[in-house]
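Annex B. Sample input.
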Amino acid sequence: MHILLSIFVIMTLLLPQNSQARDLETGSVDVIMPELRSTSVVIDDNDERPVEPNIGEIFYKKRLPLTSMKERVDRLIHGIKKGVPPEFDHYGYEIRRYMSRIGSMEIFENEEYLKDQIRNVRKSAIIYDYWKKGLEQEVLDIEALLDEDDTISPGVRTAFKQNRITVRTFLISLKSWIDSNERLLLHVFNHPGIYEIYYPEIIIASPQANLEFYNNTVIKQTKLKEIRVYRPFNMMVY
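Annex B, continued. Sample output.
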């Protein structure tokens, strides 16, 4: 992490002071990258705050029984590459619910709200751990069945290899996204009383904290871009 932050510091020193906020394309949506100024960070390219997704609590249902190996292989990427009804998306929906308001400007103005969001990001990390464990075990179980059963078609075997790669790549992106949000929240928590919000500009009273906030925001936005590649997570704004 120290190496990564150092790289961002070097990049920052090379930026013109009045450089415009940049955007990274993510399919049909853009992820805005921050702009560093001498005493502030600009986090958006206009003064309209992000529209947070409305993700309420729901009652979850048991998934329907599997009927074939093809269906079992396909289900590996449900909630990752393929959308499923919320009541069957036991892990992804709950992570998105906890992460949906995690970057609201209220984190700078309301300490209790900030603490709630730190708790929410940590709940998301716990859910991630359960999801990761379940997916990794399912991959191992399918691998064992494919080794034992020569009658399973080449098409199913190819689909499994592709889905296994998708699962592993997704898990890395999901963990990085959650961690980057926690890192930024903790930075705000550890530097109270130094922020003034004039959206989209955040004035920060400490030069060092200003640079650290910028670097953490660059990382967070980069990880947001990566997770939004996955359709169920495309609506996330923080």
